[in-house]
Amino acid sequence: MGHPVYRGEKPQLHYAGDFTWNSMSGRSVRLRSVPIQSLSELERARLQEVAFYQLQQDCDLSCQITIPKEFIPQAFGMPLSQVIANDRAYKLKQDLQRDEQKDASDFVASLLPFGNKRQNKELSSSNSSLSSTSETPNESTSPNTPEPAPRARRRGAMSVDSITDLDDNQSRLLEALQLSLPAEAQSKKEKARDKKLSLNPIYRQVPRLVDSCCQHLEKHGLQTVGIFRVGSSKKRVRQLREEFDRGIDVSLEEEHSVHDVAALLKEFLRDMPDPLLTRELYTAFINTLLLEPEEQLGTLQLLIYLLPPCNCDTLHRLLQFLSIVARHADDNISKDGQEVTGNKMTSLNLATIFGPNLLHKQKSSDKEFSVQSSARAEESTAIIAVVQKMIENYEALFMVPPDLQNEVLISLLETDPDVVDYLLRRKASQSS
Fold first, then answer.
1. Superfamily of domain 34-91+203-332+340-362+373-400
2. 42-62 pLDDT tens trace
């Protein structure tokens, strides 16, 4: 297909081929594989559509595929969105002393090629309860995930977030950023939603409970044999659960039993009414095993792109943690020559434990997915195989290759060339 070109008074914006774009400023930007968390909220929404189209056209999963809705699951009686909103409030409280708005505004003014510069007007951020970040400066992050940073840099070095954040004087940009999609493809409600999508990344939509449990176990439990199989104290787990439920700033310290924390993490995932991988995509995930081995990983990647951002980011953090646990499964010799006992939690064992809570169609009466019944035995084997493949390949699964990014930008170029130029400027600033 031919690629649209924007022509006007400004320098020409166009796709030059080989995943290289020329921006309105004349700068050449070559796309490269990036973590999905580094994409803007708008790009992630369009990536869902691109992935959905590719799954329909190129992948024979023998089932109907739908993009999961932004479900509001509950955990410990609390909506996941509220958990993340509480985390966001906690982080904002920590950042209250920081005064970086002026620097961020100046940076934005230097990048925007039109309109009057802002005169010390503070730019607001999205108030979406799921548009938050729960990381702290000491958090562990994936090698493929951008390092935690001050808010301005973390959000792509620009504080312009959505159309409503733009100054009235920048009417030309305001008009250009009226993000639109074909009328036949969206309802009025969906159009209104897209207009509010952020043009900058919103990293790590992960509940603090999940991240705290993972960090604690990474620090204190990697050498614990059978870490997820040994029993815990129901009383202590219930107490921790109630504290998180009330939104208390729970700090998991060394004295907290790793078995209690492991049980807490499993309960969190088990008690979600809609599983992390969503019921809508259950059959699609299972049917990836019917594909040729070389096609399975790429199809899993596309299905992960369909997940709501909060599910996707939480899944990434969980798989990152499980991968680290699996790397410590076997006995080994330390640098000082001492024998270190492995935790025996291979990727297969971990998939057996976590798989039924991450991927299922419905819960049994005791809130546990039964893996023993003969009727479910075959499906259980498939669930375990899918989750095991995710654990072993989590780093690749959450990277977005240049060809898919390219499709996202092309879809935006057809309707909103100024938006594409803005995104290219941000990508260029991140690369430099």
1. Rho GTPase activation protein (1.10.555.10)
2. 999 999 999 999 999 999 999
